[in-house]
Amino acid sequence: MSADNSLKRKRSQIWNNFKLTGNEKKARCSYCSSDISITCGSLSNLSRHLKSKHPTISTTRSETQQPPINTASHHTRCEDDVQDNTPEPSQGTIATVNSTEVATGFSSTVKTVQTKQQATLGSYFSSNRPVSVKRSKELDEQLLTFIIKGFHPFSIVEEDEFKKFVHSLCPAYNLPTRKTVSSSLLLRLYNSTVQEVRSTLQEVDAVCLTTDSWTSLNNQSFNAITAHFINSEWQLRSVLLECLEMPERHTSENLCRRLKDTVHEWGLENKVVAVVTDNAANIVAAVRLCKWRHLPCFAHCVNLVVHAGISVSGIHIIINKIKGIVEFFKKSSHGLTKLHDTQKQMGLPELKLTQDVPTRWNSTLDMISRIVMVKDAVVATLAVLHTELNTLTSHEWTVAEKSIDVLQIFQDVTVEVSAEKSVPRSKVILFVKIMNKKMESLLAEQSTPTEITSMVTILREQLARRFKDLEDNELNNQATLLDPRFKRYGFSDEAKFHMAYENLKRKVCGLRITEEIPIAPVEETQTSQSSSCLWGDFDTEISKVVAVQNPVAAGIIELDRYMQQPILRRTEDPLLWWNERKEIYPRLFQLAKR
User: Mean per-residue pLDDT for 351-356?
Assistant: First the structure.
């Protein structure tokens, strides 16, 4: 190897990690002693070896780690040799005096060059490196999202322990002040969210509104309006349009004005299909004043049905006794400790009793279910404590257990219709059908206690009263009919199905899609041309009739083809099914989406 070539190679910083061997075409790694080919003077193989085998080794001179020195073969030298041959310690090396020289009294000073330990991966991420503007903005937005979704106070950014926690994660990030979060970051996120929602709502064809009013613990009255729609990807979405204080009286006129102002602000005047509310007279009248279709909240109606069933029937006496037992263990710490000890002794799970909430009937079911689960422990604990509680008799425990079977169907229906990302409206007719069938089967049982029979009778009467016109509602029956999972099987009455089918047929036939499929023109043959005098007037008249009747015929064929398709499995997504078949059923697709 020539001297020029050798000098050229030595200029590269990568040679801090390799050394030449006797073979001019090989270089030996100082870390793993592997021989790497350097044919034609190329150093790419050396660089590739470092990146693949020693990724933590830097190729820059200032950060290069010197190869480890074998201390066993390190020789002590005289002072002259050290002065002539030993380099001065540079950055990354430590010069130390050999302790053996001090012990033996040699006058020579021997320097041992020790290298730094191999750098870790984390050492290449400098904690003092400033955060870029883009990264700082991302961190600010994530901080604000954390505060909003977790309902944390803005003052959390001023807490010392939170500051320490953030600093340990990213020392270079400067936390914004409380004022910056509330006045600057929050406003910026609000404006960007509003623009995003506006652009989304401009693309939708129809929305359904839900609204409710309530009073806070501070005696402040609020009103909220939410829009539900199917976006361009055919996914069910919901956005809160407003949640504002409403100090004025909640009259139908004031509520109507609030609804209209919100709809106008978001540009939804011609897109409101229906408004879903509770059964309060003022909000029902307000929707009527707005000239929109009103739908009672199905979950709210189920709540009213169950409340009537458990309050009017004789089971309310048993429920009051259970409430008294639960309140005793909630107030008595000694009693609660004794209950837990009894559960451990009996090998039962250590569960707490659940208190019901008057506004939520399913909390009553949770209370009954929990006390039945720990029945033996509760009875034993009350017997030991000798309380004056009016405890349940053996018959009443049986009634409580049986009431769980009755109320469970209403709980399952409430959970199903309260899901945010599934289509609930097409299920309501089927759910009422299932609940009625369950009540009839319970009444047919011979060994049913009297209290349960009374409750089931009231529940069935309430179902009939509150949902008697459910299948007559156009939105309900057409939503069921256009759900590929149900179609005609979602109806409880065959006559109601035929009525819904005829109404849907009229809608489909009267619908004009923007891109009609053109009718292929009839090729004129020599025969038709020669006999045009004979058939000309007839052909002209028939062509007009076909042109007029073609959309109607296409709509009927489209509906019949849809009804003849196999039923979609209940667990599959009907929105995805429609999105995949929008070209096959263009008219029904528009109706189903709306």
Answer: 88
Dihedral through CA 195, CA 200, CA 205, CA 211, nearest 10? -70
Whether this prediction's pTM lies above 0.85 is answered by no
What is the torsion angle, in degrees rounded to the nearest 10, for the CA atoms of residue 583, residue 588, residue 590 and residue 594? -140
Q: How far apart are CA 205 and CA 514, in angstroms?
A: 15
Contacts with 30 (C-beta within 8 Å, 6 or more apart), sequence order: 17, 18, 19, 67, 68
Tell me how far apart the alpha carbons of residues 40 and 21 are, in angstroms, rounded to a whole number: 15
By the 8 A CB rule, do 304 and 279 touch? yes
User: In the block, which residue shows the tokens 């003092």?
Assistant: 128
Query: Would you call 348 helix, strand, or coil by DSSP?
Result: coil
Query: Would you say the C-alpha torsion 48, 51, 57, 60 has a positive or negative sign?
Result: positive
Helix (H, G, I), strand (E, B) or coil at 174: coil
Tokens read off for 286: 């307000």
The pLDDT tens digits for 288-317 are: 999 999 999 998 999 999 988 888 777 888
Q: Which amino acid is at 545?
A: V
Question: Using an 8 Å Cβ cutoff, are 49 and 15 in contact?
Answer: no
Instruction: Collect all residues with Cβ–Cβ distance below 8 Å to 93 and sequence separation of at least 6.
Output: 66, 113, 114, 115, 116
**Neighbour tally for 331: CB within 10 Å:** 9
- Amino acid present at 367: M
Spell 307-330 as b/e; 16+ CB within 10 A means b. Answer: bbbbebbebeebbebbeebbebbe
| Residue 28 bridge partners (DSSP) | 19, 35
Please give the average per-residue pLDDT across 89-102, as a whole number: 39
Total H helices, total E strands in the chain: 24, 10
Residue 485 CA: distances (Å) to CA of 183, 295, 346, 436, 567: 49, 23, 48, 21, 5
Cβ-proximal residues to 570 (8 Å cutoff; 6+ apart), any chain: 485
> Distance of alpha carbon 95 from its chain centroid, rounded?
60
Runs of H (alpha helix) within 86-240: 99-104, 133-149, 160-169, 178-180, 186-203
Distance CA 345, CA 330 (A): 21
At 395-428, the pLDDT tens digits run: 999 999 999 999 999 999 988 888 777 778 888 8
